[in-house]
Amino acid sequence: MNRILISIGPINIYYYSVTMLLAILTGSYIAYKESKRVGMDKYLEDLLFPLVIFGIIGARLYYVIFNFEVYQNNILSIFKIWEGGLAIYGGIIGGFIAIIYQSKKYHQNILKTTDILTPGLILAQSIGRWGNFFNSEAHGAAVTSEYLQKRHIPEFIIQGMYIDGKYYQPTFLYESIWCLLGFIIMIIIRSVIRKKEKDHSKSMGTITFTYFIWYGLGRLYIESMRTDSLYLGRIRVSQLVSVILIILGIIGYIYILKTNNSMINNKKKEEKNYAKKI
User: Fold this and answer.
1) pLDDT over 90 (residue 209)
2) Distance between CA atoms of 207 and 196, rounded to whole angstroms?
3) Can you tell me the distance from the alpha carbon of 278 to that of 97, in angstroms, rounded to the nearest whole number?
């Protein structure tokens, strides 16, 4: 597949770069729209630039560290991110560092910030995965064209997965769809919270922990199908991080439930004490 979208003299504009740009702009727009609704748009305006920069740096460093043998003889190739090699978990870590710094600087709650950002993030991931398609990377094992047709994979994707004489599982597509579904679920949850609760502090972190669990589960399974996984010994790094995310998400949900139950019990005690005084 031709990776170049447009050539202007010596300058090449790659499909991968355009896809990543589209993903960043879309995710940023979704986050900004929500931040404006809750009155945090000025804060988010200051956050988005370092968030994107730290995210890209983190995504590249993560990939290079666990795949250093590819770059050790040509260090300058580390900067050629248009050729691919951005790991989403590295991007999340880098972005989270930026969030921690900016949240402390502007005295904002970290979970409130991540609740605003994560729906846009997972939608950006859904779009960004198509960059892997254009770069013919992040695919699964070799299969037959009949196998893909039986699973109702669009013909243009099947042909795009024909690489070096073989057809491959389009794992980028599976993850893209999973992330899109996650975005829809998170938007529904956010809508329900708005309708049911006047005080959103009771459910702070719900969207973030939903992202942890949903994306963690999807990536845990899809990673097992990929042929280009990054390894730490015999362990697939992304699966290890996925398990950690899922655990953090579950712990987060338990914390929210316990906190809410405690608040309800305290309120009941106060009402009883007030009734006794009367």
Assistant:
1) yes
2) 15
3) 52
